[in-house]
Every structure is written in structure tokens, then in C-alpha cells.
Design goal:
Number of strands: 9
Strand order of the largest sheet: 1-2-3
Number of helices: 12
Strand content: 5-15%
Largest sheet: 3 strands, parallel
Low-confidence stretches: 1-16, 54-59, 315-328
Amino acid sequence: MHSVLNVFSWRRAGTGQSHEMQAIFCRLSAISRMLLHPYFIFDRPDCPQVRRGPDPISSGAPLLLVQRFQELLTAFGFGWHVAPCEAEAELAYFQSCGLVDAVVTPYNDALLYGARCIIRSVARSDECEDIELYTSDAIENLASLEWGDLLLIALMSSADNDVDRCLCSTDIACRLTRYGFGRTLFRAAITLQFVEFMEFVAKWRDDVCEVLKTDPHLFLGRRHRDLACVIKEERVEFPDPAILAMYLLPLTSWSNGGHPPVTVVTSRQPDLMSLAMFCSQRLRWPPDTVHSRLMDTWAGTAVRALLQVSLVIVLSMPAQPDCLLSCI
């Protein structure tokens, strides 16, 4: 399963006839030849973007580029839908229900939404790509990081909308988890009433600052007085309640008694006529280029014919993910 949020740098994306669209076509053509059944999920267009890392992308994709992407997915025979909020939350819930085996996304915070297996592509200098595989079991058993620890790392490394930078590196945040702040914050968030929680957070934030200034058990490797001052003086709302709520109560298609966004998933072969029209009209390719680019798609058509998948999703989702009848 793919999350298409920020697959490319939307800052450079154009009108749908750009190099980005050609790159998307080539990527989908390659996916069509793989022995897998992909499903794509998009962010809601006006979904608030979580700002991740030191150079986050704060806005969504250009609407026209998204529309062209969706046209192309339909022509290739791939299923897709628009999530009610963040695609990562929707992807994670799909996996927690046993509907998919892996989530492909550039952001590891899908683990906070409940994803158990994440695949990230890593570009190499020789223009090839490696993949990184993250599983919740490995993170908990090998890295000794629980859900609360991951929550603290996400809160510390998410960029602030006002000052346009994250609090600290993931390395510092990861070291800070050894003091147990993430786990205590998580327990408080799920057990305390709002007033009690806000009182807890005030003391919790003071304790975090004190540890950053003193590093009493030498887990941090050095003292971070400047970081403590930033939290104390500039980040008066740390941890951000909105981000906490987003991770603890994510909005998905199943929220508030909602139904799955799809009830039947079946393999469909690429529509070669629609693809040819798309390449000619949207990408403005000449006939000889269209013919050569569709050669690989013909191989994908053969693979799709051999890889038949039929999934029936029961509308009433039980607690356990035994809600999927599959026939291959």
C-alpha cells in the first residue's frame, strides 16, 4: 500500500504536464509489473500537514497534480481513495485490520497510528533505490522503544509552525526517551481528565527541562541548556495538544461508527486505451513516444492478468481483523 503524500517535492510541482507527472507514470508502470496488489490513499485536500524534520513540506500537493495522479491510477487499474484526514492514519488502520501487509510511506510516524510494517525507499547516488523496512516488533524488542517513546520522538522532532524549526534532532529525542518521559506522558494522556492532564503537563515540561539542563544519568551525552530554554520560553504549549490529539485520536474512515471506504477490492488490468489517451492529451507525448512507453505497460497487463486478487470487506468491523475474505 502506498501513501502518496509528498511522493515528490510539491514545491517544484507544476500544472500536471510537468516532469513530476512523467515520473509518476514511470513509477506506476513499474509497480504494475510487480507481484503485489497496491492500493493508494491520499490526504484530504485541506488536511493540516504535520511538519516533520528539519526541512518539512508544509503544504499539500497542487490540486491539479493530484487529480492527474488519480486519473492515472484509475487507468492503470489501481484502487485509491481520499482519507478523511491524514493518509498515514488511514493506512495504519487498514493494516491494523489486516487489510494490507505493509505501508509504503516516507514518514515513520505511521507507527504512531498503529502501522506494524513500514517500507521506505531510499535513493542512492547511482539513481537506484534501496528500501528500509521498519516493524513495530523490531522497534520495541531491538530498540527498546515503546509507543510512548515514539510519541516523544515525534513531538520533539516535529517542526513548529511559528518558529519554522523542530525542537531537536531525533538522536537527542531518542536519548531523552531513556528518562521515561514519553511513557509517562502517554499514560497521563489516556488516563487523566483534561484539567488533571494539563496540571500534569506543566510539571512534566519542567522535569524535561531540568533533565535537559543537568542530564543526571548521562543518557544525553551532554547537557542541553539552550534546548531547555527554548522549551521554557518559546514553546509554552509544548507538548502541542493538537499533535497529541492527532496521534491519540486519529480521524479515519472508521471513526464515529463509519464504514470502510471500500467494500470490494478486485484486481483490474490497465486500460491501455485510457493510458494512451492520457499520455497523448495530458503529457503531450508524440505517438512514437506513447507507443514505446506503453510497451512496459503491456507487460504489466500480463502480470495483472496472472495476479488475480479478490477481497470482500465486511462492513461491520470486529475487534479482531478477521473481517477479510480473500481469494487469490
